[in-house]
Amino acid sequence: MLTPSAAALVVQATRTLTRVASLTILLLASQPAIGGPQMKVAAWMDEAKPASWNAPGLPVPAAPRVQATGDPRCRELARPTELDEDKRVREQGWDLVGAYLGGWRVLVIRGTAGYDGMCRPRGYQDFVFVRGVLAGTLSPHPMDSRTDGILGRVQLFGATLRADFRRVREQIA
Fold first, then answer.
1. How many domains does the chain have?
2. Is the whole-model pTM more than 0.90?
3. Could you point out which of 1, 27, 113, 138 has its C-alpha 20 to 30 Å from the C-alpha of 122?
């Protein structure tokens, strides 16, 4: 059970994430070179005001099933658990990929459900924790490398989290 101050912080973090995602979407949509029609689009990015997909107190979601690549070397690239939050993500079937981002009592941890033939993440998601509590995910659904709507750079500026999403003009194999 969350204390009232922790619950308020989770609600505030969720609202901030929604505002950042909305601003990012607005910026991307205003760029005709990158906001045009896609072969496979991330429809949530095209909504004027996307619905929030995060709510306080939700557990870490289970990793989706993705087709295995058959190359065990891909899973060997996964980062070992270091933090309690890492363990919570791993317990739901996600492999940890890349370094975690942390500061100001905020952690962003990337997990992937699988890999493509070149060991790129498939079905990946970034999880945001505030003071050890899951605040939510940066995308409403898991993403695949080199497809429309994937998460690019994630940055922390004090208590502000910035997430950049990429538009892909053509489906890339």
1. 1
2. no
3. 27
